[in-house]
Amino acid sequence: MTAVTIPGLDQAPTNHARLLSWVREVAELTCPDEVVWADGSQDEWDRLTAKLVDAGTFVPLKKKPNSFWAASDPTDVARVEERTFICSVDEADCGPTNNWMDPAEMKGIMTELYRGSMRGRTMYVIPFCMGPLDAEKPMLGVEITDSEYVVVSMHIMTRMGAKALARFGEDGDFVKALHSIGAPLEPGQDDVPWPCNDTKYITQFPEERTIWSYGSGYGGNALLGKKCYSLRIASVMARDEGWLAEHMLILKLTSPEAKVYYIAAAFPSACGKTNLAMLEPTIPGWKVETLGDDIAWMRFGKDGRLYAVNPENGFFGVAPGTDYHTNPNAMRTIEKGNSLFTNVALTDDGDVWWEGMGEPPAHLTSWKKQDWTPDSEELSSHPNSRYCTPIAQCDIKAPEWEDPNGVPISAIFFGGRRATTIPLITESRDWQHGVFMGATLSSETTAAAVGQVGVVRRDPMAMLPFIGYHAGDYFQHWIDTGKSADADKLPKIFYVNWFRRGEDKRFLWPGFGENSRVLKWAIERIEGKAAARETPIGHVPTADELDLSDLDAPREDIAAALDFDADEWRAEIPMIEEWFAKIGDKVPTSLRDELEALKLRLG
Ligand code: GTP
Ligand code: SPV
Ligand code: MN
To answer: Which keywords belong to this entry (predicted)?
Structure first.
């Protein structure tokens, strides 16, 4: 049989045999018009953004340099958890919190979907590296995609192109990540601005370190270095190799005495990671710098401490609610340009706008590409609309954000969005108790995933949609991680909730920059300087123990935000029991012991 000729297929800038044969195999299956190896250059960015403008996918912004507005198909706006699969060889390795299908069966289905799926389009091969390029063992991947939107987004979100390919060598290992929007074009057929397919699959094959994604162009479904690689596949690598891949921001906190602390925090999607990562403290003398806003890879260093690295190169942040009052550092970052905005509103003078930015202009083009005025009943921007912007242009990035060795973590925060029950901050009694807090974390669902919003669900370590294996084994891995280290070198674990509400539904805690007061208390606990009440759920400060100087908020609200209510917690117990019952036999005994001890303390 003669090899198929597809323009560009033989112009590979590498001799990596496994990579070349996989690219050929995919091209022969998907039948693109041409193959292009992404090099990550400015020229490539210019060419592809121009092509996206031509196609009607992008509108260049007049008010922000080198920046573009995009509106997706209205059905393709968020992660699709129902269509996300962990295809482990053994179903028992997938567990009850993930969807599973036999890998051979899934490959059969998806191979037929991919057959000819890139017809009429260009197939891009994107070599990329998650985490710093100069890491001793760079974490490499290749995404094959037929979406220009994905290529330019990967320019921002990852280290990619020629500089990543240079680290592959002749035979280096890499994660294979295949993506097709599933919208082939017949000869002469007109394209649409946001091609996608009603049939969607986001599939991980953990043993093969392989990702297959089909049908969606949205961030978390299509930028495969992000959730698919850096959490679902990496969590399996981390289990096998003794480290942690987590849905966490990383921030650097400097005290007035110039002491430096690094904090990692896991909150579910759209629950405040980006905002905390870029916080502007309201208390004098404290400083926050950012290392990452969504994902942390944590490994033990030679000194026995846990070091965190951000695998990403950009922020893919929730737009609504972001403005100069809530997150000025995000605003300053996107003002510099070089950014993509998806599903926000477009102003008549060529800028972006979204809910939470203050007074709306008299007229906008909504994310649905309709005329919008302040009288419109619909929102101008989708609640999960996002900005995509390079970390490098964030004024408060920590200088060490690209250190391949990472930064030593002093505290881990778990948190969720709960209107009741969970105090503003609780310090765990020890690592095992902290793991129990994380494993039973709960939060109201948000628009970051397709489905009902505002329903309380368990979201362990904010990783429910991202654990690449059995949740019970994942809990055990967290317990084992603690056992493998000196207890006094482990980060202290805290549980926070910025979202508790009063009877009239208002937030009890002002949040955002004021969260620096909560960070300060945590650091003072680590330093042994702050007092706390011992309660059945852990150590909780009273309002007197938080620095509330110059805080413009009713004292009763603060007290209510910090309240431990035994009745609310007794009502929580059956939900935790139900959750553990769902996980089944693999819930670690130590966590069952924690639950029994909590029940005893609650009486
Ligand atoms: P993903 O990118 O989906 O993982 O989300 P995230 O965890 O980074 O959440 P983000 O910081 O983008 O915040 C999501 C929403 O929560 C935004 O609308 C914020 O305005 C809001 N939010 C963030 N922090 C606070 C806070 O301290 N208090 C209140 N009330 N809202 C907050
Ligand atoms: C999230 O949903 O947690 C995100 C956005 O950070 S996405 O990349 O779509 O997953
Ligand atoms: Mn996230």
So the answer is: Cytoplasm, Decarboxylase, Gluconeogenesis, GTP-binding, Kinase, Lyase, Manganese, Metal-binding, Nucleotide-binding, Pyruvate, Transferase
Span 84-119, pLDDT tens digits: 999 999 999 999 999 999 999 999 999 999 999 999
ipTM above 0.95 for this complex: yes
Retrieve residue 438's tokens.
Answer: 């994380």
Whether 255 and 285 have beta carbons less than 8 Å apart is answered as yes
Distance 442 CA to ligand 2 centre (A): 18
Of 434, 390, 384, residue with least CA distance to 409: 434
267 CB within 6 A, ligand 1: yes
**Ligand 2 pocket, CB under 6 A:** 79, 219-220, 226-227, 269, 294, 316, 448
Could you tell me the CATH superfamily of domain 315-393? Phosphoenolpyruvate Carboxykinase, domain 2 (2.170.8.10)
Which residue ranges make up each domain of the chain? 3-55+81-241, 244-312+398-602, 315-393
Ligand nearest to the CA of 273: 1
**pLDDT tens figures, 519-551:** 999 999 999 999 999 999 999 999 999 999 999
CATH assignment of 3-55+81-241? 3.40.449.10
Q: What is the side-by-side order of every strand in the sheet holding 68-70?
A: 58-60, 68-70, 340-342, 386-390, 314-318
Backbone angles phi, psi at 470, to 5 degrees: -70, 130
Evaluate whether the domain defined by 244-312+398-602 bears CATH number 3.90.228.20.
yes
In the structure, ligand 3 is a single-atom ion and the residues with CB under 5 Å from it are 269, 294
Q: Is 274 annotated as a binding residue?
A: yes
